[in-house]
Amino acid sequence: MTTQRVSTTVPLDWKQVWFTNCPMVSANNVDQELGWCREEYKKIGVEYAYFRHAPENNWYPHYIHNLDNLIRFGGLYPPIQVNADIRRTVLLGATWVYEGGVMQVRARDKIFRVQDLKGKKIGLTKSLNTIKNDWWRIQEHMGILNILKLHDMTIDDVEIVEFPYADDWYDKPEMLVPPMNNPSELWMRRDHKRDYAFRPLEKALLAGTVDAIYNQMGQLGQLSEATGEIKSIFDLSRLPDWTIQVANTPAVITCTDVMAKEHPELVVAYMKAMIKVGRWANRNKAAAAEILNRQTFYLDAEHTYEGIKHVDMVPSLSAQNLECIRIGKDFMFEHGYIKNDFDVAEWAAPEFLEKAAIEVLEEEWERRSWSKLPAGGGLDVEGTRLG
After folding, report:
1. DSSP H stretches of helix in 23-152
2. Fewest Cβ atoms closer than 10 Å to its Cβ: which of 102, 122, 224, 258?
3. Do 79 and 118 meet the contact criterion of CB atoms below 8 Å apart?
4. Nearest one of 159, 120, 160, 118 to 140, comparing CA atoms
5. What mean pLDDT value characterizes the chain?
């Protein structure tokens, strides 16, 4: 018997801002341990908390953004679907991690090249949960096609084997109570580095049901390789072409259009914290790696450091980030994962990041200059040039 899944939320209160994130490299995943975003909201009399802190909120707002006062920092594909087909949101920033994905086979199989997969079976998941976006499948689908194309192959050269699965951990009682104060509590419960829910096709590969699987990113691939039973035969991240690295990345920040229009100060407060935390993480990569290791899929803190040492942790809406987002959105539209197309440039709202950056600069100047200038150091003259 199928359980009826529904999304539940707390009543809207603009004196509260909820956040949610994915287990990815992002300033928000660092801040959940630093608490700097909470400080920014305290300055304006607003409570800031993880959305699962309230028992009335189940997991689905993370995917369908049905809380007006929620800010999300996480994987690319769910917010694309939300903006295309569910409700209008605003794109506030992005963090790009150059990771790609890997094609993997059993360690002792006589398969050494992608061309050896001709006529072989490649797994592809299919979520039966109709509420949430099927982001696992999208990234697998995209990665498989990219790797085949790079080796002058098409989907017709292999056999795709679908694996429907319930995708229902969101509704399990032990994942709904008690309320969580911090996303790290989720990953402590899930033991995510060993949880096969995050590597759903690995058992099928080891059982011989398929001959190859695509793993989303180098992090997950290396966890699979650490078992001694699986090897990678191709790694997209080893290539110079960044346009084929999109795999539910970059991680993006989104809020509802309601929040952006009616309460822009709440958006700016969040973005100020993300700039501050991102700058701190850039200066202290080893410390940031210790924090991120609790949530991401790297092997350990040292491996996390290697993964983030060249990453700019300050979110941006750079031309490259926006183009990566377009690539992901176009794939979803062309392959039927979203019903409606939209313009990424219109989705993006750089004014919030710009205003936040100005306020961070003003606050920093005030702190640095107050003891050196007789009448304060506020930047209150428009057009004044510093330096």
Report:
1. 27-34, 36-43, 61-64, 77-81, 135-150
2. 258
3. no
4. 160
5. 90
Residue pLDDT, tens place only, 328-365? 999 999 999 999 999 999 999 999 999 999 999 999 88
The CA-based diameter of the chain, rounded to the nearest angstrom, is 78
Answer yes or no: do 53 and 144 share one domain: no
Q: Residues 64, 114: one domain?
A: no
Q: What is the C-alpha to C-alpha distance for residues 86 and 88, in angstroms, rounded to an integer? A: 7
- Condensed to tens digits (0 to 9), the pLDDT of residues 226-250 reads 889 999 999 998 999 999 999 899 9
By three-state DSSP, how is residue 378 classified? coil
Question: What whole-number distance in Å separates Cα of residue 38 and Cα of residue 344?
Answer: 29
Q: Where are the beta strands (DSSP E) in the chain?
A: 16-21, 47-50, 70-74, 89-95, 102-106, 121-127, 159-165, 213-215, 230-235, 251-256
Tokens of 248: 């539910």
Determine what percent of the chain is predicted with pLDDT higher than 70.
91
Q: Which of 82, 55, 57, 53 is nearest to 67 (CA)?
A: 57
pLDDT value for 191: 66
Residues 271 and 326 occupy one common structural domain: yes
Residue 298 near residue 219, CB atoms below 8 Å = yes
